[in-house]
Amino acid sequence: MNDQGKDPQQGRRAPEASGVDLARQALAAAREQARARGNAASARKGRQPGLRSGARADGRDPMPLMAALDRLRTEHGWEMPMAVAGVMERWPEIVGPEIAAHCEPQRYENRELVVRCDSSAWAAQLKLLAPQLVARLNSDLGQGTVRLIKVQGPGGRPKGYGPWRAPGSTGPGDTYG
Fold first, then answer.
1. For 67-114, what is each residue's pLDDT tens digit?
2. Which of 6, 39, 76, 100 shows the smallest number of beta carbons within 10 Å?
3. pTM as predicted
């Protein structure tokens, strides 16, 4: 077109677009922009354009509770703590009812299992059985899970308050407060 708005080949003016035609052009342009934005958004999410949930399984589908718990455990690296907690619950099965009646696991830290016994005789007995227990625990949990069993004897009685003891004192050397 030239400056006067005439078509040089035919010598006449091009028809001007009416309001309805302008609205249709604006709507078509807006739809095209929305389609382009939608394709860009779905590409960011890793989906194909227009893909919706269907008959095939994907990551958004519901799953059984145990499968969800197993997935959560592996994603967060909780296998070892949960296995050790299971061993602490099965302690009587692992060591036998007689030992379990007198010795109980306290905690598991740095591949060491701490066990407290109710008498020094049972503590000495468990120290002799410790290598066999480590082997049995490692066969259940996986090699290298338990490196050492620390055996603790009975703890002393809690100190009671008598007529000559001040509340909060720590012992006979604590006389001046």
1. 888 888 778 776 666 666 777 778 888 888 998 899 988 888 888 888
2. 76
3. 0.46
Cβ proximity of 117 and 130 under 8 Å: no
d(CA 99, CA 126): 8
Rounded to 5 degrees, φ, ψ at 145 are -70, -45
> Tokens 């000495």, residue?
124
114 bridge partner residues:
107, 150
Maximum separation of any 2 CA atoms in the chain, in Å: 123
Sheet holding 112-117: strands in order across?
A: 103-109, 112-117, 148-152
- Work out the number of other CB atoms within 10 angstroms of the CB of residue 145: 18
